[in-house]
Write a structure and sequence with these properties.
The complex is a heterotetramer, with two copies of chain A and two copies of chain B. By secondary structure, chain A is α/β, with parallel strands linked by helices. Chain A folds into two domains: 181 residues, Thiamin diphosphate (ThDP)-binding fold, Pyr/PP domains (Rossmann fold, 3-Layer(aba) Sandwich); 127 residues, Rossmann fold (3-Layer(aba) Sandwich), CATH 3.40.50. Chain A is built from eleven helices and 14 strands. The longest helix of chain A is centred in the first third of the chain and has 15 residues. Chain A is globular. Chain B folds into two domains: 301 residues, Thiamin diphosphate (ThDP)-binding fold, Pyr/PP domains (Rossmann fold); 35 residues. In chain B, the strands form two sheets. Chain B has a six-stranded parallel beta sheet, sandwiched between helices. Chain B has a two-stranded antiparallel sheet with strand order 5-6. Chain B is globular and about 75 Å long. The chains are: A alpha/beta, B alpha/beta. At the A-C interface, α4 and α9 of A face α4 and α9 of C. The structure holds thiamine diphosphate (TPP) (2 copies) and magnesium ion (MG) (2 copies). One magnesium ion binds next to β5 of chain B.
């Protein structure tokens, strides 16, 4: 089995989908000859021609808006937003249109499409090349939001997203693009959406995380284990629709919960995890539900390593919750 | 080809109904069908206005004055083309055979509405006999969508076109900019129909933009722009036909500005007397598109008192019967709140739906209130 | 003291601000001669001229973008977005620009401005004239989000927002525009941002709410009182920055919490209230933290009364939490 | 006035440095200052490129080829005007007296950076001696902001103007559409400077839009558009001067397309050899704006070997010293993460800041990592 980085797995997933289904096409800014600024689409124009992988003018509204029309007319567009920070000009098309088309037409029209976009910090990108905007989208019924954290999941979830009958926002943790190589099967396979991944078993504390935070949490969990605190680490990987029952089971098992994400805390995705638990199984909780998140500020540049949750901060929360 | 505000719009039917040297591309039957459709639009409007005034539906939008734009444009396209309409375009659907009762189900938001009562009135969605794309309230979003649909035709090598219709106000939207730009670069088979009816709610077209009319905006995108008399069915037919032929030949998009006038309010919630100058309204009243087309039919020998009476009766009775049927149809079931969010019902929505039914059983159902729409 | 409806109070607040400060100006779609589709700006063009109250072309991006430039250059713009549902074309300007300008320029440039917009259901507006999108904004550091629920607060909070040195999104519950008349002082006064309003005292259950849900919650609380359940009702009124200490105190007092809003549940604003409580004072909680919200679907039309939380649903949650 | 792609751009200085019948509006001193600024931009670029290659700063954007646009435009405006620059415009700031060390503090994101190290390099913000608006990464957002700032001047009856600069790619953005439209309707005193440098990262200008050049886009908004040789300092000066005069007279906005070429990569993260055709690059190398301006100065008798040597040394030494000083300046303190979010620090941010300090005390500080920017 080939070993690939996360971004190679994305690239491979796109190729597999395009080989298998003629209606799949890829477009966005600089995704053609340049292969994308992170090289996620490298080689696609060469293999599939510029009818099926091409650059667009600089308009995210245009990219997503045309993708919706293509999807409603029989194609399977997979478009790229160069950085998640630049998705906001397309916000109206995503939230008002793609997400609501099936509902408002009683199922007559649908928008099966994927929007891929790299998100998160770790590259000294400052305010506008570092954001984690998942919570701007997970409040939107009709949309699916997927975030992989491993090469295997990246390919499998991407192929599942492309096959999905509903619009999927596929957010790729850019900090993990070249983090490590791992086994990725050749050809077609899928990882079901709306399923959790058990990263690590443990009976003392449950840590929920996703995307770029998964390796950070793993490291913290290893350190915790050295102190005899055994963490169950859960990678949420589909944020919407979430496997809520799975979350509740995992939380109930230990009664001590930490939620970790890069995005700011206030009204961040972690709030929903806390709220689901506090609403359904609060009686099982033996400690405060702690969130370890980015600060409630814009994303800084020079000090980004202070802004991003790191092993230190995650471990501190695990210890606090474990001791409580 | 390029026209400006100062240029006179392209016209076929003169005020007296004559067409001079112009060829008439439509058959007699089609011409009568155009007229029938215009009368049906008027009848639909009238009935809806009364339904709204008497509180039986919540909202409607008047089409008086703009019937020729819709009908002339629709008559130039095929049933295999893809329509991306605005809320003032249902004449296009009627022309191609959508039944008034299907529209009325939407006006009442009942269980038979194709959108299951989820949208406001006049937000239609049809797939048969034409693809009449689900109408959305946000202005301008459907323009890039139409370009995408056109690109799909292009990729599959089909010679269908997409027509997207929007207002003078719509040209200021973000969707206008990205759609025209993408369509120009892609040479997509799409027709942009800008119905300049003088107003965006209370904002006059002159304050909407400082450009010399709307057709000229095509130049910013390498898209040919033409200005057409929007109160002239045959001028509309010809302009859209030519644009469609260009598109089918692979020569790309066209922007058509149809110059017309909104004779009523923006909607049943609007009081245009607050801002529309009466003199201008009077001027436009003389250019009524239905009258003009009637004069033409007369000159052609296609019109008669009895035809008028038949078509009017047919339209009025058809619409009234449709309204009656729609009003008698029940509201959608509670479960329709939860379906069609996704292709499959996810667990959390199932749970929310069950809780709603359970609460209704335990504590009774929610109150409907009156809820009249203020805009 | 005059008695005014909520929308009259808004109108009065705008007039007071414009009389007092020449740099205040009002613009948006149809706000001029027509006076706005809800008449919030009626009479302004007549009194202040069309230099200070005027219509704009149909572009929310243009409205908010130009407001930022005006604010950065010495004016105090108060712009209107006709319906909150139509704010999304301006999302990038609000979230990427207005909210981050002070931070990214080290305070050299700022955007003191107000964006007023009616939100919420109750008028049979369907998917696109009914939404409650507050959670799309409360995740954004640098922005303030204010929602009044009474005529008095509407004017006082609006005047405080206009005077505020930071950008404020001022969301007006359209269902309450003409709900009732109440005393509103003439002339200038302010209600401090980031303060809670105690709507009703009670020792059994704490209900957090805001905007259009306040009267619904009041009615439910009255019914509950008939059964001997005494609710403390808290109107949050500034959603960001929130008076978190005040929320914690109110929650601790009863140990039983219900959070109510119109917006969908998943990643809605209520999640943050639950999460703050679960993070800081979970040990005081004697019942699950219940949320009563819109469903996780787009907003329907014919069935909107089933979608919107009503007295019935709120009371049911209060009873459940009280009995727990 | 209206020009198209097919039209030749307006030019003052010929290839050999002569200006024919053109009047030169700048004093000798100003002309030398223009040249000095261009050399300073080059020196800044060179030093930053080296700093980036050696890993001492994370990112920079090359300006080679576009120096005349920035400098010619800046020379036409006053210090009381308002600049809304893009990331490739710092020559405008240098021209008006912003010190290189202030820019270098930003390149290093240190404690003396006006943005306190919060932004990426080249995202400058200055208020003195000119209002050089905080640069933002999202393309196009600053265009409507400039229009708003211009409207503020207009309302107060001041005769200042706003200049907003953006690229060929920027014309596709939403901000371009709303800004040009609002400015046209408002007759706002704003100058839209589109630097068409041939590329938006890897997308060539021909694929960015199908319009006949960029100046023509003004027609869609009733805004006059002119096309100027962007490698010609004096043509830029004249075009911007005329636009500024129009604006100050209350005659509204102008769109200027400056035709130039990006001779380097999009940024230090980009490899342009993957997509830029070498022949075209070679053609443009011959039109180098610094060379052209030097030839002009020679013809004017303002240039000498010793001037060149002095200016070059001055520029290089100044920039190197600035880099040294900036590199020696410490990083911003942890507290700067939390300040300037609001005018006053709210309670929740105070708490988060305190917790961060507390954790650093208890468990040590966070790791910096290497963090090189890939774009
Ligand atoms: C993005 C957005 N902003 C505002 C509105 C509110 N609105 C509804 S219709 C309308 C005017 C549209 O004018 P025009 O495009 O000329 O179409 P017409 O109604 O004249 O057919 C406005 C402002 C909206 N629906 N969408
Ligand atoms: C809204 C948005 N989308 C995408 C990007 C990524 N991006 C940065 S620069 C750039 C190209 C800009 O080209 P142009 O406007 O011609 O300016 P130039 O770099 O040539 O000066 C792109 C796509 C961005 N910054 N903002
Ligand atoms: Mg109109
Ligand atoms: Mg460029």
């Amino acid at each position: 089995m080939p070993t690939l980085t996360l971004i190679q797995a994305v690239n491979d997933g796109l190729k597999v989908a395009m080989r298998q289904d003629e209606s799949v096409l890829v477009f966005g800014e600089d995704v053609g000859p340049k292969g994308g600024v992170f090289l996620a689409t490298e080689g696609l124009t060469a293999e599939f021609g510029k009818e099926r992988c091409f650059d667009t003018p600089l308009s995210e509204d245009g990219i997503v808006g045309t993708a919706i029309g293509m999807a409603a007319n029989g194609l399977r567009p997979v478009c790229e937003i160069q950085f998640q920070d630049f998705i906001f000009p397309a916000f109206d098309q995503i939230v008002s249109e793609a997400a609501k088309l099936r509902y408002r037409s009683g199922g007559q029209y649908t928008a099966p499409m994927v929007i891929r976009t790299p998100y998160g910090g770790g590259i000294r990108g400052g305010l506008y090349h570092s954001q984690s905007g998942e919570a701007y989208f997970t409040h939107t019924a009709g949309l699916k939001v997927v975030i992989p954290s491993t090469p295997y999941d990246a390919k499998g979830l991407l192929l599942a997203s492309i096959a999905d009958p509903d619009p999927v926002l596929f957010m790729e943790p850019k900090a993990l693009y070249r983090h490590l190589k791992a086994d990725v099967p050749e050809g077609h396979y899928t990882v079901d959406l709306s399923t959790l991944r058990q990263v690590r078993e443990g009976d003392d504390v449950t840590v929920f995380c996703y995307g770029s935070m998964v390796p950070v949490v793993e490291k913290a969990a290893n350190k915790a284990a050295e102190q005899g605190i055994h963490c169950q680490v859960v990678d949420l990987r589909t944020l919407l629709p979430l496997d809520e029952q799975g979350v509740l089971e995992a939380a109930r098992k230990t009664g001590r919960v930490v939620v970790v994400h890069e995005a700011p805390r206030f009204c961040g995705y972690g709030a929903e995890i806390s709220a689901i638990i506090a609403e359904n199984i609060i009686e099982y909780m033996e400690a405060p539900i702690r969130r370890v998140t980015g600060f409630d500020t814009p994303f800084p540049n020079t000090l980004e390593h202070h802004y991003l949750p790191d092993e230190r901060r995650v471990l501190d929360a695990i210890e606090e919750v474990a001791k409580y | 080809m390029q026209t400006t505000q100062s240029t006179e719009p392209f016209r076929v039917i003169s005020g007296d109904g004559s067409v001079g040297n112009h060829q008439v591309a439509l058959t007699d039957e089609q011409l009568v069908h155009c007229y029938r459709t215009m009368l049906t639009v008027r009848a639909f409007d009238d009935v809806c206005m009364k339904l709204q005034r008497s509180g039986r539906i919540g909202f409607s939008v008047p089409n008086k004055g703009v019937e020729a734009c819709q009908v002339g444009a629709a008559s130039a396209l095929r049933q295999t083309d893809f329509f991306f309409p605005s809320y003032r375009d249902f004449g296009m659907a009627l022309y191609h055979g959508v039944q008034p009762v299907e529209m009325m189900h939407n006006m009442f938001g009942n269980a038979k509405d194709s959108a299951l009562g989820r949208q406001m009135p006049v937000h239609f969605s049809f797939v048969e006999p034409i693809k009449f794309f689900s109408i959305s309230s946000p202005i301008g979003t459907h323009l890039p969508q139409a370009v995408g649909a056109a690109r799909a035709f292009q990729m599959r090598g089909e010679d269908h076109v997409a027509l997207v219709s929007f207002g003078d106000g719509g040209t200021s939207s973000l969707g206008f900019h990205s759609a025209l730009n993408f369509a120009g670069v892609w040479k997509a088979p799409v027709i942009f129909l800008c119905q300049n009816n003088g107003w965006a709610i209370s904002c006059p077209a002159e304050e909407q933009t400082a450009s010399d009319g709307f057709a000229i905006k095509g130049q910013a995108y390498g898209v040919p722009g033409i200005k057409v008399d929007g109160n002239d069915v045959l001028a509309m037919h010809q302009a859209v036909s030519e644009a469609a032929e260009r598109a089918r030949r692979g020569e790309g998009p066209t922007l058509i500005e149809a110059v017309t006038y909104r004779m009523g309010g923006h909607s049943t919630s609007d009081d245009p007397s607050k801002y529309v100058p009466k003199e201008i309204l009077d001027q436009w009243a003389e250019k009524d598109p239905v009258q003009r087309f009637q004069s033409f039919l007369k000159q052609k020998g296609l019109w008669s008192e009895s035809l008028e009476a038949d078509l009017t009766r047919e339209a009025t009775e058809g619409i009234s019967a449709a309204a009656k049927e729609a009003e008698a149809t029940g509201a959608p079931g509670l479960e329709t709140i939860f379906s069609d969010v996704y292709a499959e019902l996810p667990a959390h929505l199932r749970a929310q739906g069950e809780a709603a039914f359970d609460l209704a059983r335990r504590k009774g159902s929610a109150d409907a209130g009156d809820g009249a729409f203020p805009l």
